């Protein structure tokens, strides 16, 4: 996607909001352009034909224009902030959604903190660039042309000098364009990497302290800072030299104005009022010129961000099928071969039938969890072999609907979202029997936490494990995958889990990886890897 493509897309979807913002911006710019002309005429009036009525008229005009300017400025700023938040969030979610649909193996190779910060920063830069310039480009162009015409009409020599210096300014930009673009890309990347490293110092604080890895993580942070420091200094040096060139050009314009304007006033070919108008409009012309220079830099910044976004958007997402499953009767694995960094699972085949509990056993690293991942649709596109659900190949099935309606997966590491205990055990569960939920809460010994006042995040690891198990089973899907469900459970809870699995197995396919003898005993079949 190119920057202009996203601009047109944004414009088509928000015509009324952007249109109103554009009209108000033009009104505000028009008022700003009138004030120097009114002020200059007022000065000439005071010098050549002063009157009290003229002062009253001028004062009323300035008050009216000032009031309109203040109100329109306030409305514009509020509109801009709202659009920045809305458009930025929508673009951010769109990129994240695309990344979520990529192959899981690609995502696991990246730093998630780095990705999220990079996406958020780049989407805000892109949206900010569009909103900042959607009306200002037209306004600055019109101001530039009108003011330059006025200066040429007033004094051709001065107009020619300013036009020549503007041309030199454009040349300066094109000379450094590529260097600026490369420098900004490197700075964005090193900033995101440093932010990710910095955040890791807190997100993994317990692990760092428990493993006595403070020095290693601090060293990684210092390396990221060193790279960032180099990129910041390089960017600052380049920015300084560009700004120095701007200042020299603008200084020559001002000297020319005072020199030529002063001579014209001495020779009585220009009034003081006309000179003040010329002075204000030249300042406005310089602002327009500087805006276009800033626009070029801002464009490069936004282009770099769009290039970084495209690195994700150009990655092909996993294709999902269209078939939906009403009821799962059987699952068949046929000659699956898969590995992360070499062969892990080789020519594995098995049939899973409704009403059975299956236990997968094997040494560490044998691929037990990977079998569960493949059954849930993860890494399937990277595997050789086939998986059938009711004789329908997994690639032909709508994987989102399959995960939502047909299969529930309890992971080794329990993920508990923010919220109360009741919200935690029912999150993502559309409907359930209250009595069955209370039965599981009591069986796992969690009655004292069954309250809206209990924050699930404050519970222990074992209690979070129980919450995850309850939520998995409460979803009432026909296929249940359990990866080491005994982790963190006390003996009583393990016995209850074995009893619970026997209770619900009649119309389900339950596949688990476990090392606990009590839970293993409830399995109908054993798989060895």
Summarize this, please?
The protein is of the alpha/beta class.
Q: Return Rg in Å.
A: 34 Å
DSSP E strands, number: 9
Oligomer: single chain
Distance between the termini: 46 Å
Strand fraction equals: 5-15%
CATH architecture of the largest domain: Up-down Bundle
CATH topology of the largest domain: ABC transporter transmembrane region fold
Largest sheet: 5 strands, parallel
> Which stretches are poorly predicted, pLDDT < 50 over at least 5 residues?
none
Count of folded domains: 2
Classified in CATH, the superfamily of the largest domain is: ABC transporter type 1, transmembrane domain
Strand order, sheet with most strands? 6-7-8-3-9
**Helical stretch tally:** 17
Q: State the share of residues found in helices, binned by percent.
A: 55-70%
Listing every helix as H and every strand as E from the N terminus to the C terminus, the arrangement reads: HHHHHHHHHHEEEHEEHEHHHEHEHE
Keywords, please?
529 residues, alpha/beta, ABC transporter transmembrane region fold, Rossmann fold, 2 domains, four-stranded antiparallel β-sheet, 67% helix
Description of the molecule:
Strands 6-7-8-3-9 form a five-stranded parallel sheet, sandwiched between helices. Strands 2-1-4-5 form a four-stranded antiparallel sheet, with helices on one face. The chain has 529 residues and is α/β, with parallel strands linked by helices. Strand 7, helix 16 and strand 8 form a beta-alpha-beta unit. It has 17 helices and nine strands.
